[in-house]
Amino acid sequence: MNWSIPCAYNNVQKRSFHVTGMKRLRALAKALGFRAGTFDVRSNCGGIAVSGEVTLHHERLYVQISQPCTGADSGILIRICQGRRDYTGGRNHFAPLSLLDDIETLADRCRSVLQQGG
Q: What is the pLDDT of residues 60-92, one digit of tens each?
């Protein structure tokens, strides 16, 4: 998957971004050892001019992917949370979308955020 091809105004790319993103976030949940029922993976396609976002929301961790409109290589947002109704959580940590192609490294990054407590 080429994560840098813009999704804005490109329905084919946006669909691929969301389908592949959901698969990768499910793989991340598995790599982190999250039990079924303790997390959700959801997709919000947004409007035509944006990528929208795909979210992994666990009891303690919130990971969201999108293509930043600034063009910055910071499309993965990672933060701790206090349950699946906490949408603001702890401090934001960012990582490049390319880490979705290296789930173990992304899982290590998430574990580090969890260990730091924010």
A: 999 999 999 887 889 999 999 988 888 777 899
User: Minimal CA–CA distance to 14: which of 72, 42, 41, 54?
Assistant: 54
Q: How many angstroms separate the CA atoms of 65 and 77, rounded?
A: 6
Q: Which are the contacts of 66, defined by CB distance < 8 A and separation ≥ 6?
A: 50, 51, 52, 53, 54, 75, 77
- Pair 106, 94: CB distance under 8 Å: no
Mean pLDDT across the chain, nearest whole number? 94
Distance CA 56, CA 24 (A): 10
Query: Can you give the residue ranges of every domain in the chain?
Result: 11-116
For residue 108, give Cα distances in angstroms to 26, 31, 51, 85, 104. 15, 9, 26, 24, 6
Beta strands per DSSP E along 39-96: 39-44, 53-58, 61-65, 76-80, 93-95
Closest CA to 90 of 101, 82, 100: 82
